[in-house]
Amino acid sequence: MSAANPFEIGIFTFGELTRNAAGKPMDAATRMRDILEWARVADDAGLDVFGVGEHHREDFAVSSPPVVLAAAAAQTKNIRLTSTVTVLSSADPVRVFEDFATLDLISSGRAEITAGRGAYLESFPLFGQDLQRYDEYFDDRLELLLKIRDENPVTWNGSTRPPLHEAGVFPRPVQDSLPIWAAVGGTPASAVRAGKLGLPLYLAILGDPPRFAPLAELYRRSAAAAGREPGQIGVTSHFYVEETSQGAKDTFFPHYSSYIGQNMPRAGRLDRAAFEAWASPRGALFAGSPAEIVEKILWEHEILGHTRFLAQVGLGGLSQAQTLRSIELLATEVLPVVRAALKN
């Protein structure tokens, strides 16, 4: 790390509408107001990145990241605004680029796109697409999105949408080149693709962190083999911080257990012992005191070499006050210590 390129820390959310004991999800309008307040507080506190994900289900509030990010842009000044992720497989790359270029204009050059396949598949039937062509859609549309970014007008011919011939795509962004990241869930092929294309990538770490070290190395080797400089590596993780370790764990456990049960049922029932193991110094869950969060970020940096950490906040029905305090602590007690430790 250097002063010119410091380690970046930010937050993101999918806008989960956590269900109560009666099985009723929280109100989407309230959740949206919460999310925009998270963005304002993160910006005021000095965090680097704010992201929102895309889902098309009744238990999520966000189906259109650029709309939410544009609202956040109007209420923030410095924080970078990214999708986490844009489900590119079921989107038109022309519209995606136009939306994020517009966001870039609104935000004075703070927009980014994170392109992914999507962990859920509800968008495919919703938009009339064939799940049997899952990989084809992503490869084809990522190629077009990058071509639109780099060329205007653009000529392109693919297999999943009509061709373009000398087509102008407008508006163009403030930034010379709109940043496009690739989201990698854990497959080697995705890391290779990102490396060959020279795209920065996110690793969504939900399991044993050292398991992702070979992916980071494969990404760097693939970039070098293609004659490209590897881009940034970002890490995304579930997150909650309080002033004390025990306080954070006691507060977060019931909420996180509920979140896992509703959103990751394949993980099985999360009892307190499993939670403590996940939140241990070498576990994937970031839940504890600021000092513990710092230690874990630095440990993962040693094995992955990443330069950006995004914390997934607001999980499992935490109160707005608890979430805002967690965001503030991430900015004031974690970010400066991590940067000081990694400064050349």
From TrEMBL:
Domain Luciferase-like residue range list: 14-303
Organism: Paeniglutamicibacter sulfureus
Gene3D superfamilies recorded: Luciferase-like domain
Domain of life of the organism encoding this protein: Bacteria
InterPro entries the record matches: Bact_Lucif_Oxidored (IPR050766), Luciferase-like_dom (IPR011251), Luciferase-like_sf (IPR036661)
Keyword tags: Monooxygenase, Oxidoreductase
One Pfam short name: Bac_luciferase
Keyword Acyltransferase tagged: no
Name recorded for this polypeptide: LLM family oxidoreductase
